[in-house]
Specification:
Layout lengths: L1 E6 H6 L1 H9 L3 E7 L2 E6 L4 H8 L1 H5 L4 H8 L7 H5 L10 H10 L16
Parallel strand pairs: 1-2
Antiparallel strand pairs: 2-3
């Protein structure tokens, strides 16, 4: 996929042709004003647009595998895949902090609130 830069004036003058070029899916357009990028125009994801056309597909909950497939990546199956392997130093003090947090009393309910806490 190529990226092209175009001044805002040139884009305004040739908007229809530029949009048609972007629809092919091969071009990303950066629109410039005073030499700075003010907008980026990408082709719409075709697979996602097709899914939105069917309301049953829109409301169907997607699994992690569905999301990964749609994004073109492997689904995460282990915490290490998501956060990285980590080491002992990353967890230093966690157990102590967890014990302290669990030992804290529950907050008092605000006046007029239900005072029962689900445990």
């Amino acid at each position: 996929m190529s990226t092209r830069q175009l001044s805002i004036g040139d884009f305004a003058a040739h908007c229809l042709e530029e949009i048609k070029a972007i629809q092919s899916g091969d071009t990303v357009l950066e629109i410039l004003s005073a030499g700075k990028i003010v907008a980026i125009v990408n082709p719409a994801p075709q697979r996602g647009m097709q899914a939105l056309q069917t309301s049953a597909d829109f409301w169907r909950p997607m699994t992690a595998q569905d999301h990964a497939r749609q994004q073109g990546i492997r689904p995460v199956t282990r915490v290490e895949d998501f956060w990285g392997p980590g080491d002992e130093a990353d967890w230093e003090g966690f157990d102590e902090a967890l014990e302290n947090w669990r030992a804290e009393p529950l907050p008092e309910p605000l006046p007029g609130e239900n005072s029962s806490h689900a445990a």
